[in-house]
Amino acid sequence: MRKDYEAIKIENEKLEFKFLEKKMKEVIGIKELNLDILKTLNLYENKKFNIAAELFADNNNRKFSGIDIVVLGENINKILFRENIERKSILEQYSDAISTFERYYEYEEIVGAERVTKEKISKEAFRESVANAIVHRLWDINANIKIVMSNDKIEIISPGSLPPGMSEDEYMRGYVSVLRNPIIANIFYRLGIIEKFGTGIKRIKYEYRENFVKPSFEIYENSIRITLPIIETVPSNLVNGEVKVFEILKKREKLSRKEIEELSGYNKSKVIRSINGLIEKSIVEQLGKGRSVKYQLKK
Fold this sequence. Notes:
Blueprint: H1 18-27, H2 35-40, E1 44-45, E2 48-49, H3 51-56, E3 67-72, E4 79-85, H4 90-105, E5 106-111, E6 114-119, H5 123-136, E7 145-149, E8 153-159, H6 168-173, H7 182-190, H8 200-207, E9 216-219, E10 223-229, H9 242-251, H10 257-264, H11 268-280, E11 284-287, E12 294-297
Parallel strand pairs: 3-7
Antiparallel strand pairs: 1-2, 3-4, 5-6, 7-8, 8-10, 9-10, 11-12
Helix pairs in contact: 4-5, 5-8, 9-11, 10-11
């Protein structure tokens, strides 16, 4: 895709931006979305709109790809909900995806005398993943963003691989921000949906800093897949002393058996049983041999 695809001028002069205007009133405090503001947003120039403007418009004549959402039941053969979101502003597409998340992954829990809203999967990580998919995807190919929601994870698949000039290592570490769609990115930034300098992956990882299972990022030739696991700070299959040893190794890396004994208060045999159980479950790994053996959680 040409980097300036979103900036290509179009002939459609009857675009409407009610949803964009609504969001800009809420977040930025504008009184109305006029042509001067559209020019400032780089959606209108020399008396013509561009493709980015069409993507932010409430409706248009061009058939752009949208977002496919499917919510699975107990297995892949049971579909609880399915929706194809298209022919509306990409801001509204984003909002609809968040609403679906809230419907299936938020729940209320009574804590003391209050009802507290909790999440089965990190909402902030989901918001960041969907926003990144919209902002960084290839818009000139006929493929929808796909969101697959299941009991233990959410997968977000974005059309198009990394933009030219960005390596997989740079993407994973969040070192470099190469904007494929700078006009779209700038508006999402102004509305507070994303941060300016490519911190999306870091923010997703940060949301799971206490989680046992971490999000995964898979980069293919024609797509990028982000998988967000269910929030689980302690593995559900731990027994007896394994829980305490796991919690100790979460806070400190590369501990000897003796150090674990001192921190846990367990005797030697209980620590050995707990460590061996965690190794068998592929949760803990052994480093070194003999007297220099240390243990840590698997990365």
